[in-house]
Write a structure and sequence with these properties.
- This protein has six helices and nine strands, in the order H-H-E-E-H-E-H-E-E-H-E-H-E-E-E.
- By secondary structure, the protein is an alpha/beta fold.
- The protein has one domain: DHBP synthase.
- Strands 7-1-2-6-3-5-4-8-9 form a nine-stranded mixed beta sheet, with helices on both faces.
- A hairpin with a 4-residue loop joins strand 1 and strand 2.
C-alpha cells in the first residue's frame, strides 16, 4: 500500500493509544510489526506475553532519529566499523546491535542481552513521522514465537484477535525482516540476513 494511504489510517487516536501504553499491529517498512512504546514497561511486557517471547530475547527498537539513542544511554557515534556507522546505513532496513551498558536502570524491562540492544531508523518517512509523535517503539514481527509472520491484517487478527488495541491495514506485506548486524571494532557481524544483503562475518 502506498505511504499516503497508510498515513490516512494513522490518526491522533492511534498516536494517543501508543502514548498511553497501548499496543497494536501496523505495517513497517519491512513486515507487519506488533508495536508498543519502548518507554512503557507495561506495553513492552504486554508484547512479550502476546508473542510468548523468551525473556532473554530483546526486541528491536525503532527510532525516528539518531539522537533518540541518547534516551537509551548511547552516545552520538555508536559503532566503529569504518564506513559503516549507523549514520551511514540509516535510514534503512538494517537493525544494528549497540552497546547499552549505560541504559538507565528504570529501562531494564527492555531486557538487554549482554548489555546490548538492537535499533533501527526506518526508511519509510511515514513511520519516522509516526515515531516523532509516539517516541521509540519496540516492533517485533506480528506473530507468536515459532509462527509465520503475518502478511496481512487478517492473519494478524487470527493471531491476536481482540488482545491488541488497534490494527492498521497496509495490504499484503510479504517482505523480509530487517537485516541484523553488530558493529564490532573493525568487523561487521551478521546476526540475521534479511531485507538488505550485507557482507560480513556470520
Amino acid at each position: 500500500m502506498a505511504e499516503e494511504k497508510i498515513k490516512k489510517k494513522i490518526d491522533e487516536k492511534i498516536v494517543e493509544i501508543v502514548k498511553n501504553n497501548g499496543v497494536g499491529v501496523l505495517p513497517t517498512d519491512t513486515i507487519y510489526g506488533l508495536v508498543g512504546s519502548a518507554l512503557s514497561k507495561k506495553a513492552v511486557e504486554r508484547i512479550y506475553k502476546l508473542k510468548k517471547r523468551s525473556a532473554n530475547s530483546p526486541f528491536i527498537i525503532l527510532i525516528s532519529k539518531i539522537k533518540d539513542l541518547k534516551i537509551f544511554g548511547i552516545g552520538d557515534s555508536p559503532g566503529t566499523v569504518p564506513g559503516l556507522s549507523p549514520k551511514r546505513i540509516w535510514p534503512g532496513q538494517v537493525s544494528v546491535i549497540l552497546d547499552c551498558s549505560n541504559l538507565p536502570k528504570e529501562m531494564s524491562y527492555l531486557r538487554p542481552l549482554n548489555n546490548t540492544l538492537a535499533f533501527r531508523l526506518p526508511e519509510s518517512k511515514w513511520i519516522r513521522n509516526f515515531l516523532k509523535q509516539t517516541g521509540p517503539l519496540v516492533a517485533p514481527s506480528a506473530n507468536p514465537e515459532n509462527e509465520k509472520p503475518a502478511e496481512t491484517v487478517k492473519q494478524a487478527k487470527d493471531y491476536f484477535q481482540n488482545k491488541v488495541d488497534f490494527y492498521v491495514d497496509g495490504g499484503w506485506l510479504a517482505g523480509q525482516p530487517s537485516t541484523l548486524i553488530r558493529l564490532n571494532g573493525n568487523k561487521i557481524e551478521i546476526r540475521r540476513q534479511g531485507a538488505v544483503k550485507i557482507k560480513g562475518k556470520q
